[in-house]
Amino acid sequence: MSGTGARENIFATRMALTNTKLRLKGAQTGHSLLAKKRDALTTRFRAILRKVDEAKRKMGRVMQLASFSMAEVTYATGDISYLVQEQAKQATFRVKTKQENVSGVVLPTFEVDRVPGSDFNLTGLGRGGQQVLKAKEVYAKAIETLVELASLQTAFTILDEVIRATNRRVNAIEHVVMPRLENTIKYIISELDEMDREEFFRLKKVQGKKKRDNAAAEAQRLADAAERGEEPQEDEPEAEATEDLLSSKDNDVIF
Amino acid sequence: MEALFFNVDTGFLEAIVRGYKAGILTQSQYANLTQCETLEDFRTQLSATDYGNFLANEPTPLSTVTIADKATQILVDQFNYLRSNAVEPLSKFLDYITYAYMIDNVVLLITGTLHERDTHELLDRCHPLGVFDTMPALCVATNVEELYQSVLVETPLAPYFRGCLSASDLDDLNIEIIRNTVYKAYLEDFYQFCATLGSPTTDVMQRILAFEADRRTVNITINSFGTDLTKEDRAKLFPAIGRLFPEGNNALAKADDIDQVRIVCENVGEYRAFFDGSSNSGANGHGDDAGFATQLEDRFFHTEVHLNKLAFLQQFQYGVFYSYMKLKEQEIRNLTWIAECIAQDAKDRIQDFIPIF
Amino acid sequence: MTTSFKNRNLLAVIGDEDSITGLLLAGIGHINEHQKNFLVVDSKTQVSTIEAAFQEFTERKDIAILLINQHIAEKIRPTVDKYSQAFPSLLEIPSKDHPYDPSKDSILKRVQKLFGE
Question: Composition bias, kind Acidic residues: at what positions (chain A) (predicted)?
């Protein structure tokens, strides 16, 4: 198991295990947060999409009205385009930018900022001035729609970008970071288990050796006692042997 | 006496112009035109009228601007034919008609010069009726001072410019004020000239010109509401002729809102009808004023057409030439309007043109 | 990013004569030191001129919204489609002779693609 999939290059220790577990936890939290953000943005995005669609169609109608009012001007006044182009000096119709915060994304919104100007007030003075005035108003209305649409569209572009970035992160966490951490944990655990088993086996071996030695020593002692013709006292050496075992364990095993 | 010698010089041209007049579109032709679904249909319908195949060589898609341009070109050709066959004093009279367009063109050139544009490209934008031989010479001028001098030397408009403007005025004044000042001088001069032609030309023309002057006066008054045009300046733009002159003009110069304009106009019987239905609009605030004023513009157009039609009722006078030009101009506006409505799919407004016959 | 759009308060237009006239009437025209914020396009205008104006307007720092007639955008479609900056935001507007066609709009195309998914 531990050999499959990518994992971090790390020493399999309990310390590393704890750290990695913490990091996995962090990644999971991050993932769920980002996923929530993505969902929130997507909801907003969908709403904006629909509005963009609507507004674009509305713009089609509004602009048609506007160009029709231009036709009225031409009817009443004649061609004024050159005069208008040359008389334009300072923009009286501007936009202001405001910011709106959606799940940590700054979306700019445009607002119409109109100052009364007198650039074309006298256009069509002798004839058709009222039509010019009307066209001016109709076009101003049309531009308001356009500005609104521009806000939506900018939000659309920015959100699109942000959602892509968020998606990339969510996917990266889900499909790269988290599996790697999980693999690392699995690896550490399996390594530790392996070490446990090795240790256990070693202890068994040591114990076996000690038992054999003890048995040999006991046999020796019995043999010696038999030579001296004494009855051996069974219990005491047994206890000593146990003590020996404990003390040897103390020396070799760290935990 | 008039009638006796009129035909010696002018009989032929009067016959021609009355022939042209017969070609002006009629109510039923307009009805056909308004039924068109596309500009292609429009072209087909027009080819059945006196316009003939004037659009035949135009590439599709047809634009409304092309239609207007081509129609104007026909009018210009007709006018040039009349002009080249005319002798004094009719030739002088016809020249006077072109001055109005000339003023527009010169003003256009002034605008271009003021903003240091290449004025040569402006020549294309000039109204063909107002083109004069020496016009390219005006384009040589690089600053307003030079332009002013060349206008004085090269154009027939010299008296109007000299009389009311100086070179520095061209720099300082709003271009619309220049236009209207010059136009006022032109109208007054034309009026005087018509007076020298004797009856019945004088009668017919003075009636039309008086209306034209009054229309300008009323329009300038209404359009200057809410602008930075002072009342003294406004008064200077009013032509010193017309039925509202002088006391009406004085009152209009002081007017502050549309109701005062209405009161002034009610002193003249024929103008009373213009303001019908406006009495309650004053109370409703400014929004209605604008709507009403566009309506007023329409009524002015109607009256203009009506007066010009009247000119044809009398023989042996020059008014028919002027009237024909004006009626034809209105017709071109109508055609453009209908074409515009078709192109922009605004069928509900298509009837808003002014039928002539 | 917050600072980049603070100074943007102008609208710019690339369009035909009628559209420009109307928009200028409404007061968006701004001329300083021989720099205009609009370009009149007629049948004689070179595509390269339009491209240049498009580049200029999109690089200027004081323009918030760039309006362009759809039939003119059509002439420089590759450039328009490639454009993806948030500022200035690009709007395709209809003109008198060319009614609005949603299927050609580069933004709407993206919208439709996203909805289609």
Answer: 232-243
